[in-house]
Amino acid sequence: MIHNAPNIFGYKKYWAHRFGPAPELPMSLAEMQQLGWDACDIILVTGDAYVDHPSFGMAVIGRVLEAQGFRVGIISQPDWHSAEDFKRLGQPKLFFGVTGGNMDSMVNRYTSDRKIRSNDAYTADGAAGKRPDRAVNVYAHRCREAYKNVPIVIGGIEASLRRIAHYDYWSDKVRKSILLDSKADLLVYGNAERQVVEIAHRLAKGEGVHDLKGIRGTVHFVKQVPLGWMEKDSTDIDKPGVVISHQSPYQEMPVCESNVGPNSFGQTSGETVIQFKPIANKQRAQTVIRLPDYDVVKDDPVLYAHASRVMHGETNPGNARALIQRHGNREVWINPPPLPLTTPEMDGVFDLPYSRLPHTAYGKANIPAFEMIQHSVLIMRGCFGGCSFCSITEHEGRIIQNRSEDSIIREIEAIRDTSPNFTGNISDLGGPTANMWRLACKDPAIEASCRKPSCVYPGICHNLNTDQTPLVKLYRRARKLPGIKKIFIASGLRYDIAVETPEYVKELVTHHVGGYLKIAPEHTEQGPLSKMMKPGMGTYDRFKQMFDKYSKEAGKEQYLIPYFIAAHPGTEDEDMLNLALWLKRNGFRADQVQAFLPSPMSIATAMYHSGKDTLHKVARNSPDIAIPKGIKQRRLHKAFLRYHDPKNWPLLREALKDMGRADLIGNGKQHLVPSFQPKVGEQSGDIQRPKSRPFVTKYTAIKPNRSGKHKRLKD
């Protein structure tokens, strides 16, 4: 299908553009009065502290709407215990825009073990407790209480990942679409510039919020499937088998044409693999796929997995169809994803007049997230890696959206010339990944029709352009700028792509690594790797050889810092043991470890909930896969990653004995854990720390210094 979208900066500006851009979007009536405003057209409510920087979603949306001529105010981290704080800017003329913030509010507050975090990086001075659980729901309810008739539009990562019925890890149940729970009028998902601009202009022209149907990247209610649309049952796309239940939406499902035989439902059905049948373009554009009802999937993990598979098959904006899912007596309509921004549009978004600073209301307070990214530059959006545990695909999509080289250089110069504490170092030049800038399918027509979940798994697609020499050119140009001392690359590196352009690896290692480079093999064993859709360790070894070679040629002592995930679906205890042995052989020790957290709507979360491998056929007789769910097993998997910590030795000894691997208990170098337990406060010296190899850590790298003490290095 060929899609066209108006340039987001091509709309006729709203009358209020005469006020011009604000130095910073107002957060109080006094600031509004100074700008000459009597009201806001749009008020954005966010769970984050307001930082006017293009790495903060509310700043981007606010500045984009301001560029359309609208008066935009910000209500940041309001007191949600009543509606009073939601009235601080008065009643908006057009709508409230509500988000939980740059992070999902539940991920922000709770660890993967459901423990409350002690700080919040997106809050002044890192203070915890400044936003409620499920912030989007709470904020939307308070907005409705404050001004009953004002339209409410929800968005951001929290809303994106909850747009359909979804498994919720924190309550351990399937919840309704957040559109119902929040009682909002409209949901926008993904990077929302395109759809938010259209919504604002149409409301400004007098349309009602319930008239805004069919906008890509939005979710809304419908009373019924509109005339002219063909409804297609999800079982025509992915056949999970016939369910013996009068409530089943599959009772009239046709038999698959191939591999017919008895299945796990006790009936004859076809192979339970996604089978996308071609539909004429015109017909496809007017086709909506009916997902199983919420009342069905909430009690049936297999059908939940089916719905997840179908939804993920409709994420390419070039060919995705609309989805519909019944929730009780209401129908939730999910439009296809928004079309990616063009490079000129991306440049326009990042060229807006951001102050690049926290709002002056915060005074000298430190906002940790801002401190980390204030001198970083985002060069692209999206990721075609398709890692099953990652939410980028569900939010930003697989199509890479690029900024131009000139736009990137302009931002670096702006940081150099305006940032009050810039010392000459750019902390990052990247995005969701470090090295996907300008990478895309060799043929746009193939890209628009592709339905693969990943361009690089199980191997790199032969249609993918992997030439990273344009990125090398960008790095070299950026390094030559006056006043720039060093440019670091801190975004996650996709090393399986990097090795396809040795010149890129050499450039990176020679000029852009600050002693340590973070990469994410995630595991060493094929079982969990196959469920993550990650490459094997052979690719890691190839990259490490290149990294070591070019570091030596540059005369630098540099180290790779690999990250690993514990307790991911598909991981057996033996897999974690083998990973621990690999860490020991290679001299790595984890300072802080990452345990799998089932984020709403991800592929791996569907595995976690259903116990099935949702990358392949899903039926009731499909083999169960290992799902580390119990607290003890999750702790054991994390303990294997920190095999060197005496606190974990009792648990590991018990596990090794149960696994028949007591041979790994002892006081020699060949053993994983010692046979003795040090007294409280005693330091264990049985395992010698390598003199030159760093610890692995999620947040910091630690390396012994000459005094024998350990120096903590900031990322």
Short key terms for the protein model shown above:
single chain; 715 residues; alpha/beta; Rossmann fold; 10-stranded mixed beta sheet; 3-stranded parallel beta sheet; 24 helices; 25 strands; globular; disordered C terminus
* Fourth CATH level, the homologous superfamily of the domain at 15-217: Cobalamin-binding domain
How many angstroms separate the termini?
44 Å
Gross geometry: globular
Any idea of the CATH class of the domain at 15-217?
Alpha Beta
* Mean pLDDT metric: 89
Biggest sheet details? 10 strands, mixed
Computed structural class: alpha/beta
Radius of gyration: 26 Å
Give the CATH topology of the domain at 15-217.
Rossmann fold
- CATH architecture title of the domain at 15-217: 3-Layer(aba) Sandwich
Low-confidence stretches: 242-280, 684-715
The strand line-up of the biggest sheet is 2-1-3-4-7-8-14-13-12-9
Q: So how many helices?
A: 24
Secondary structure tally: strands = 25
The level of helicity is 25-40%
Share of residues in strands: 5-15%
Structure overview:
The structure is a single chain. This protein is of the alpha/beta class. Among the domains are: 15-217, Rossmann fold, CATH 3.40.50.280; 225-324, no CATH class; 547-595 and 620-715, no CATH class. The chain is 29% helix and 13% strand. Strand 1, helix 2 (57-67) and strand 2 (72-76) form a beta-alpha-beta unit. Helix 10 (301-312) packs antiparallel against helix 22 (603-610), helix 16 packs parallel to helix 18 (502-511) and helix 21 runs parallel beside helix 23 (631-641). The protein is globular and about 75 Å long.
